[in-house]
Design brief:
Length: 334
């Protein structure tokens, strides 16, 4: 892999985290690991730095960013509890206490201090408290609030390793903190709490079954007609590999040749397999599959395969989030 000389991939030790925090405070962008995927960070209160995030990612300005925090006290500086609908303050508390720090992003009424560019002019703000220790240390030292989309060009595969980020942005960003491979492997679940009831805008690292358990069954799911509000980044074509991707149902045999890569969900269901077969998990465990989802797509995409055929997951647990990504990644391109 060839990186521009400008890029530094630095081990995420104390010294480099301090260096990265200083860069963020100066308005420079830094890529860093979280438990979900790598983020492209900027000081959440520096509008010029935020504008650079959109530019580097080639991200449309209508698509708002998630603000990452590393202490619960910071939440109060970002969101306006007084504008929550009846009963929702209690819901915020329940979710925050059960899941944060972790892969859940909450959409909440925004305080005016949050720059409009971060929220794409919306009157809501997306907030997440990651559980990755490197992310937490960096955010704390950088002032407490770091806006970070996934560190990939808009629409492309999310990065789960530092070298994925370097391949995308090697000539555009100064520092990538290397924290190894991301543990969850898919992005956070985005849950809108600004309406009358919790509404899932993006499936992700916390599954709907778990959310329903915490909210006492109260949950509106994405893609249903009663969806409370739109998530601008939730476009039909997203997370795309460069190679054309086709999906097949679990247990079916894909109609493809040896020059095509085939991605199965579980190795133990396919004891006999060719060199062109890849597996998301050994025994069909959803968390294992999610953890290597983007990793495998990056690997296959870099190989000499003509097309990719991927088996759908079961629609339970993180399988639903995997299927959502597969569906978007296979959306027909022009
Ligand atoms: O796991 C993650 O969430 C990663 C890591 C780096 O934390 N970040 C991430 O950010 O996936 P990004 O920008 O790739 O996706 C953020 C999603 C987008 O779909 C965006 O439209 C949605 O969150 N979003 C952000 N603010 C919103 C808002 N105010 N209302 C509705 N959707 C919002
Ligand atoms: Mg993204």
């Amino acid at each position: 892999m060839i990186f521009a000389p400008k890029t530094v991939i630095a081990a995420a030790n104390d010294e480099n985290i301090a260096k990265a925090a200083k860069l963020l405070k100066q308005g420079t962008l830094v890529a860093f690991p979280t438990e979900t995927v790598y983020g492209l960070g900027a000081d959440a209160f520096n509008s010029a730095a935020l504008a650079r995030v959109f530019e580097v990612k080639n991200r449309p300005h209508f698509d708002p960013l998630i603000i990452h925090i590393a202490a619960l006290e910071t939440l109060g500086a970002l969101y306006d509890a007084a504008r929550l609908k009846k009963g929702m303050e209690n819901m915020v508390l329940r979710l925050v206490n059960s899941i944060w720090p972790g892969p859940l992003t909450l959409i909440l009424p925004k305080k005016s201090a949050v720059p409009d560019i971060a929220t794409a002019g919306f009157n809501t703000v997306a907030v997440r408290f990651p559980r990755h220790k490197v992310a937490q240390a960096l955010i704390k030292q950088a002032g407490g609030a770091v806006a970070a989309p996934s560190a990939n060009p808009f629409g492309r595969l999310s990065p789960t390793r530092a070298d994925h980020v370097a391949c995308y942005f090697g000539d555009k960003i100064e520092l990538i903190l290397d924290g190894g491979q991301c543990e969850v492997g898919i992005e956070s679940t985005v849950l809108d709490l600004s309406g009358e009831a919790p509404c899932v805008l993006r499936q992700g690292g916390i599954c709907c079954e778990e959310l329903r358990r915490i909210t006492g069954g109260m949950l509106i799911e994405v893609n249903k007609k009663n969806r409370a509000s739109a998530s601008p980044g939730n476009l039909p074509g997203h997370y795309a590999p460069l190679k054309p991707l086709f999906l097949f149902e679990r247990g079916e045999a894909p109609e493809c040749g040896e020059e095509d890569a085939v991605l199965f969900f579980s190795r133990n269901e396919h004891p006999k397999h060719g060199k062109n077969c890849f597996f998301l998990s050994e025994t069909g465990i959803d968390t294992e599959a999610a953890a290597c989802f983007f990793e495998l797509f990056h690997k296959i995409d870099a190989g000499n395969w003509r097309r990719i055929y991927a088996e759908k997951a079961s629609n339970t647990g993180l399988g639903a989030a995997i299927n959502d990504r597969l569906k978007r990644a296979s959306f027909p391109r022009i």
